[in-house]
Amino acid sequence: IELMQGGQSPIHRATPMESSLDVDTEIDYEGLPQGAATSTHMLAGAVAGIMEHCLMYPIDCVKTRMQSLHPEPGARYRNVMDALRQIVRTEGVWRPIRGVNVLAVGAGPAHALYFACYEKIKFRLSDAIHPGANSHFANGVAGCMATVIHDAIMNPAEVVKQRMQMFNSPYRGVLHCISSLLRCEGPAAFYRSYTTQLTMNIPFQALHFMTYESLQETLNPHRQYNPTSHVVSGALAGALAAAATTPLDVCKTLLNTQEAQAVMIQAEGAGAVGGRHISGLGEAFRTVYRTGGAAAFFKGVQARVIYQMPSTAISWSVYEFFKNVITKRQHERLFK
């Protein structure tokens, strides 16, 4: 998940005279002060990313299984709660969080670099396009560039995580999964879904960003720190973007997991004999359609929306909280 902020609200850069007059006024925290260290963005982003992914991991596990094109009899679920109950009852209480460690390791640096890259590019482009104000165009470009870096780090973690989430996963642990993938499929296995991930995340971020900013203009027009507005806006924005990009997420899951029966269907359609891997968004789309028609592109949409709503709400809340705390502390030091 990757978060964006922006709008046309002015960036507060207080002059010495403004500082002497406005010490007691409400601090504009929407943009961190110009002297804020990159490490502050990285810290806030890393904490937000780790909390988001770890807290919502059991639902993410259910989503991966419900997107399976050929679920085994023991992995056919009516809904999210039914899936969680069955997994805990038949596979153990810790099964829904198996593989969470690799995602936590990936989410920290991925989100830290995402926010550092996003903030730096956003401010530089905003200054060039609209000096003293944020630019929607700058925010969009910054978000896209940050997403490329974020996904480059997260994609291998996503592959390992989804392989371990599948029903009857043959891997004993994270290291066993990594070594097996390297030995059997080569390094390319870790980036087989990278272009699909980008194809999904760029429109996801665009929808997420526009919806969040529109809701903030209604719920929080003065752009002050307002936890309720961040939670509501983040949850609704995440739900809309998640539902709209579900077909791409189904394709990404297929590329990451390489379901055996789906690979056989693709090989038959391509006239190949054994040993093939589904590679590329085009092959994934064709395989999904051959397997279940148009409806297959929305497998797991319920789980994806249920996962994404609290996930984006957590990320926005944590990131905005850290931003607010850091801004206030820097202003307090400035006004001493």
UniProtKB/TrEMBL annotation:
Catalytic reactions on record: Fe(2+)(in) = Fe(2+)(out)
Domain of life of the organism encoding this protein: Eukaryota
Protein's membrane topology: Multi-pass membrane protein
Solcar repeat coordinates: 36-124, 134-218, 225-325
Family: Belongs to the mitochondrial carrier (TC 2.A.29) family.
Role according to the record: Mitochondrial iron transporter that mediates iron uptake. Probably required for heme synthesis of hemoproteins and Fe-S cluster assembly in non-erythroid cells.
Protein name: Uncharacterized protein
Source organism phylogeny: Eukaryota, Metazoa, Chordata, Craniata, Vertebrata
